[in-house]
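Researcher: Batch entry, complex prediction.
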Amino acid sequence: MRTLYHHTLSAAARKVRLVLHEKHLTFDERVVDPWQRDPTLIALNPAGEVPVLVENENPIVDATTICEYLEDAYPENSLLGSMPLERAEARRLAAWFDVKFAREVNDHLVGEKLIKRVTSRAAPDSRALKAGRENLQTHMQYIAWLTERRRWLAGDQITVADLSAAAQLSLLDYIGDVPWDNEPLVKEWYVRLKSRPSFRCLLRDTVPGVPAAAVYADLDF
Amino acid sequence: MRTLYHHTLSAAARKVRLVLHEKHLTFDERVVDPWQRDPTLIALNPAGEVPVLVENENPIVDATTICEYLEDAYPENSLLGSMPLERAEARRLAAWFDVKFAREVNDHLVGEKLIKRVTSRAAPDSRALKAGRENLQTHMQYIAWLTERRRWLAGDQITVADLSAAAQLSLLDYIGDVPWDNEPLVKEWYVRLKSRPSFRCLLRDTVPGVPAAAVYADLDF
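Model: Structure tokens for the complex:
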């Protein structure tokens, strides 16, 4: 019995959904609103944040912790690799996207255009949007640099690094903010990810009042 | 051959120093300034952040990634535990202090009183100090709640959870900002940590121009 408490606008929760599907672990879903201090969520996680995975009544909290737990408990279809240095590179890049990309790009663009709209209906701050767009260019160049040298971001195999990056980018893609045509190698890598069965759950996500950009669910964008 | 690039004001780097000492792994130290965009640091870590551990010429980046790498490569003296759920609890609490406590307490108090002083000589923002002090009370209560129920924060054994918490608190303690007398159980837990040989390296740290509070290096405060 496995239930994931998540929200469609949480990149951290999107990553865990991708990880669960990549590891072929079935789960029920409960969408909860982390901006409403939902008592069910607070009881599971005193930090009041999604995602929370409940497995046999044990709550497992924090996206990175959930991914590490799933690797510990279900080592098949590893998303970290086997050698310590290889695992370190996958974890380094996962943290890069979970923390640095989130703070420099998604907090500005997704935060202003989607989350602010859903939580307060306030208008986006144009300086934040400008900063987010500029930072996104630098990050796209870094992803391009990696995809020039490696099949997947951390090496020969798909890892949590790809899924962390895809989780962030998928939200930007929902609002049509990814300049795919500037970076063909990044686009080719993302097409490969987007075509995987694990990605289908994200492509069905909708945000009330904000229709997805035309490219979002299109596998041939 | 193992070198840690770190800075005395980085809680993340303090945690890694504690982990290396707890695992009895010897290392050289290089103090680098993450606020100066040091070219040596950027070459090792494109994010330009400390800590970076270099082992046999391989840079390992990001504090959590370094701790996980050390567990993978040197499983003796584990700081995570052995069972998946036990490891998840240690990781959950480590993330709590690394991210939530850092953002709600240390970014305000240590950020305003120490880091701002070292980087810009600007005066602290009194609203940030007030917010930090209020948030610290809530966090002290949470640590008290844990120490009432468990010998160490995540269970019977010392883990990365204790070391993450101690790394943050040690910086607050340097400026004399921890209300130890309000929470005797938290103080008793911190005395146990502070008395461990791994902690000695932190107690010798000094910040130029800012003398440590009287309690900082005192084991009987």
